[in-house]
Design a protein that fits this description.
By secondary structure, the chain is mostly helical. It has one domain (1-384): Orthogonal Bundle (Hypothetical protein af1432), CATH 1.10.3210.10. Helices cover 60% and strands 0% of the residues. It has helices at 28-37, 40-44, 63-81, 85-94, 103-113, 122-133, 147-154, 166-174, 185-208, 214-217, 221-233, 239-268, 289-307, 310-332, 339-345, 351-363, 367-378. α3 (63-81) crosses α12 (239-268), α5 (103-113) packs parallel to α14 (310-332) and α9 (185-208) runs antiparallel to α12. The longest helix is centred in the middle third of the chain and has 30 residues, at 239-268. The chain is globular. It starts with 27 loop residues before the first helix and ends in a 6-residue tail after the last helix.
C-alpha cells in the first residue's frame, strides 16, 4: 500500500538532535524502534505493574505486554490508514518507558514526594529516559531518536500548553518539539491504540482475577450483543473462551470505528500533509460519539467492579507508601543509597537536584526491586 499524503515518511523527518550515520538497511524510524527495544528501560517494563502488581502472578499484564499490545494495534491502524507503521510502532513502544514501579499508584507516590521539587510526570520521564538516562553511545546521552518519535512519545496525550517540567522546558529549547500543537497522525494512532489496549486487557485481567463474572459483563449492552452472537454460534463453550470472544470482538469493533471516524475527520478537515493535522483544534484520530459512549460505560463498569475493589485499593495503598517511604528515607539520609547513586549526588548541593536523582533511581525500579529495597531498609529481619 502506498503511503498517504499525510503520512510521515523518512524523507520528511526533521532528523535527530545529534548527527548520525545513515543506514542503507533500516529506515530512521526502524532504527528508533530497534533502539527502544534494546534499551534497559524497555526490558524493565516486564517487571512493572499495569493494574495488578507484577508479583501477583496469574499472567496478568505488565507494562511490557501492554506496550507490545499497543504497538500491535498501532501497526494495524497505521497500515489501514496508509500511515507510517514503523514510526507508529516506535511511539507505541516508547510511550510508557517513564512509568515507575506499581503503575499509577507508584506515580502518585512520586508525585507526592516530588511536590516541592518540580513534580513528576511519566510522559516527561519517558523523554528523560530516551534523551538522557539511556547511555549507549560515547558521543551523546540518550538514544538520539528522530524528532518525530520523540514528539509522538511526549505528546501522545495531546498538546502541552503549559510546561511545568524544567527538563522538558530545557530540552524543548534545544530541540523544539512544537509542544502547543497536536502530534503527527502516527502519534495520535499510538494514543488511541493505548486506549483500545488497556480498556480490553483490563476486562480480561479483571475477569481472570475473579472481580466479575461473564454474567456481570452482560450488563453492558454492547458486550451482551457479542456474547449472544458467540453463544448462538458456539453453544456450550466455557467462560474462558467467552472472555476471549468479548475482547477480540471489542478490539476489532474499536479499531474499525477509529478507522471509519478518522477517515471522516481527515476528509472533513481537508488534511493533505503530515503537518496539517498538527494545526487542528482536536484529534483527527478518534472514536465516534457512539463508541465514546460505549467506552464511558465500560470505564464506569471497570471502576465499580475492578479498580476500586478492596484488593486493588489495598495493593495501591501499599505500593504508593513504599515509593513515598523510599524517597523520604533517601532524601533524609543519602548514605543509604547505593554507592553509584551517592557518587552521582556528590556533585550537587541543592535539594531539588538531589531529589531529581533520587526520583530517577526509584522510577527505574521494577516492582520486585522496590519491594526488596523497602524490606532491606524497614524490615529488621531482612539482610542488608
Amino acid at each position: 500500500m502506498e503511503p498517504a499524503n499525510y503520512a510521515t515518511t523518512p524523507e520528511k523527518s526533521r532528523g535527530r538532535l545529534y548527527p548520525d550515520f545513515p543506514n542503507i538497511i533500516r529506515s530512521p524510524f526502524q532504527r528508533d524502534r530497534d533502539r527502544l527495544i534494546h534499551s534497559s528501560a524497555f526490558r524493565r517494563l516486564d517487571g512493572k505493574t499495569q493494574v495488578f502488581a507484577y508479583h501477583e502472578g496469574r499472567n496478568y499484564r505488565t507494562r511490557l505486554t501492554h506496550s507490545i499490545e499497543v504497538a500491535q494495534i498501532t501497526r494495524t491502524i497505521c497500515k489501514s490508514l496508509g500511515l507510517n507503521e514503523e514510526l507508529g510502532e516506535a511511539i507505541a513502544l516508547g510511550h510508557d518507558l517513564g512509568h515507575p514501579p506499581f503503575g499509577h499508584a507508584g506515580e502518585r507516590g512520586l508525585q507526592n514526594a516530588m511536590r516541592d521539587f518540580g513534580g513528576f510526570d511519566h510522559n516527561v520521564h519517558s523523554l528523560k529516559i530516551i534523551t538522557k538516562l539511556e547511555i549507549h553511545y560515547p558521543e551523546f546521552d540518550g538514544l538520539n531518536l528522530t524528532w518525530e518519535t520523540i514528539e509522538g512519545t511526549v505528546k501522545h496525550n495531546g498538546p502541552i500548553r503549559k510546561i511545568c517540567s524544567r527538563y522538558l522546558k530545557n530540552y524543548n529549547k534545544a530541540f523544539d518539539l512544537d509542544l502547543k500543537n497536536f502530534p503527527s497522525l502516527e502519534g495520535q494512532v499510538g494514543a488511541i491504540a493505548d486506549d483500545i489496549a488497556y480498556n480490553n486487557h483490563d476486562i480480561d485481567d479483571g475477569f481472570r482475577g475473579g472481580f466479575f463474572s461473564i454474567d456481570k459483563l452482560r450488563e453492558l449492552p454492547f458486550v451482551k450483543l457479542i456474547l449472544e452472537d458467540f453463544e448462538k454460534r458456539n453453544p456450550g463453550c466455557d467462560d474462558n473462551l467467552k472472555i476471549y470472544a468479548v475482547t477480540r470482538n471489542m478490539i476489532a469493533g474499536m479499531v474499525f470505528d477509529v478507522l471509519e471516524n478518522t477517515k471522516r475527520n481527515l476528509q472533513k478537515h481537508n488534511i493533505q500533509t503530515c503537518d496539517d493535522c498538527r494545526k487542528q483544534k482536536t484529534f483527527m484520530v478518534d472514536f465516534s460519539d457512539g463508541m465514546k459512549n460505549d467506552i464511558l460505560q465500560l470505564r464506569q463498569f471497570l471502576r465499580n467492579n475492578f479498580y476500586t475493589s478492596t484488593q486493588v485499593a489495598r495493593m495501591d495503598m501499599k505500593s504508593q507508601k513504599i515509593v513515598e517511604e523510599l524517597f523520604a528515607v533517601f532524601m533524609n539520609d543519602p548514605k543509604l543509597l547505593p554507592a553509584e547513586i551517592r557518587q552521582e549526588l556528590s556533585g550537587f548541593s541543592k535539594d531539588c537536584d538531589k531529589a531529581e536523582i533520587i526520583c530517577e533511581y526509584i522510577a527505574a525500579m521494577t516492582d520486585i526491586a522496590a519491594i526488596g529495597e523497602h524490606k532491606k531498609l524497614f524490615d529488621p529481619h531482612t539482610r542488608f
